[in-house]
Amino acid sequence: MTFSPDRLDRFARHIVLPEIGGAGQAALARAKVVLIGLGGIGSPALQYLAGAGIGALLLVDHDTVDPTNLQRQTIYREDDIGHRKTGLAEVWVREFDPDLDVRWVDERITAETAGSVVAGADLVLDGCDNFATRLAVSDACVKARVPLLSAAIGRFQGQVGAFAGHLPDQACYRCYVGDAFDADDCDTCAEDGVLGAMAGWTGTFAALQAVRVLVASTGGMGDPQWGKLHLLDGLKPAMRTLAIAKDPACKACSSAG
């Protein structure tokens, strides 16, 4: 892939990094990322994915902007209240970088529709707010052999995990949480609260991990960290990492690979 002088200027600070370089930037430009959820995690993640030059973005959300969102969902303004997040996010990306291919799906993902949404992606970044959708997305990623980054927040905590359940000996998201949450909603921000900046930290860390995964084929930033769950604590502050083992009885990935 050859970059125009304008694109070279735009990504110069990436290209001079030995861990990314021209080959890594080209890999980012060729990549298709599906971003599920355009809320507290998805908003800052989208900004840094677009800033990194991800060539194609599929944005997925079924919600409209609410006044309570503005405390942490960084791509929206007061004038956007009541409007669809997908359309607003598309406008943001096109105004930020017209060279990016951005599309959207304005619906809630289900087990029946998840497969068509993740098909053809190089990576899925899921920042949605309920377990049923997360599990449907994870199962679809395993079937489509697409890696998954799963990110979540609550109060002063965040977590970002990298899953490649389609690979031998690698866990999927279902290995981590099990089967109990297939029908459970877990949007607790309204009940428990969430620090706005905590959403920003989690979303931008997820974007960093997305870049790590997408440049792995060029030697890039080292281990893509499959099966690693990073726990972010905004009160201490601190971060620790857990290893998630593949569940040999997992109904989604035990026969994959």
Write a compact overview of the structure shown.
With 257 residues, the chain is an alpha/beta fold.
Structure description:
This protein is an alpha/beta fold. The chain has an 8-stranded mixed beta sheet with strand order 3-2-1-4-5-6-7-8, sandwiched between helices. It has a single domain (5-243), classed as Rossmann fold (3-Layer(aba) Sandwich). It has helices at 5-10, 12-15, 21-30, 42-51, 85-96, 114-118, 131-144, 173-177, 189-192, 196-214; strands at residues 32-36, 56-60, 101-105, 123-126, 148-154, 157-163, 228-233, 238-243. It is built from 10 helices and 8 strands. Helix 4 (42-51) crosses helix 10 (196-214). A hairpin with a 4-residue loop joins strand 7 (228-233) and strand 8 (238-243). The mean pLDDT is 94. The longest helix is centred in the last third of the chain and has 19 residues, at 196-214.
Overview features:
257 residues; globular; Rossmann fold; alpha/beta; eight-stranded mixed sheet; single chain
